[in-house]
Amino acid sequence: MERYSDEELEEFKVIIKDTYQQAKKELQMLRDQVSEFSENITEGFGADYTQDSSSVSQLELLNEQVLRKRDQVQDLQNAMLRIKNKVYGVCSVTGKLIDRKRLEAVPTTTKSLEGMRLQASGAMDVTAQDLARMASERREGPNKVISKIKKPPPPKAKPVTKKRSRRRKAQEEDEDDLI
């Protein structure tokens, strides 16, 4: 499998770490703004309908920014994992190397431009199951014959035990008493 060298991965690691630190700071700043804004809203809430509506809209916008920034932080963490596993920069659709300039511009990307085009055209709609199958084929070889899958036998019926029979007799006697 084609991949970037360890030296190149270290360069990407530096870029991602810097971006990660900045994103974490921005995320904390946004969360602080949400907390402060929420406190300020509750003080005068209900006095002016238009002001309340505007405040709620601003709070929703801030919350959306928090969610986007949190997703970015998660994507950067995932990119660090790919570097650790030495698969960073390999397109998840085509399996080819992603262009270095693209990785420098969008360090969290997992697809090459070719892979994005293929997926957008529907020519190659890859699912997680497809990726797992392809990885398995790479490990085991594409010509590995899979033997027929055996179905487990149906569960056996539980035999009636003496305890159960006694319980049933007791229930029947109770029912007779009710009638």
UniProtKB/TrEMBL annotation:
Ranges of compositional bias, category Basic residues: 147-169
Superkingdom: Bacteria
Ranges annotated as dksA C4-type zinc finger: 91-115
Keywords: Coiled coil
Region described as Disordered: spans on this chain: 134-179
Stretches assigned to coiled coil: 13-86
Protein name in UniProt: RNA polymerase-binding transcription factor DksA
Organism: Neolewinella aquimaris
Lineage, top ranks: Bacteria, Pseudomonadati, Bacteroidota, Saprospiria, Saprospirales
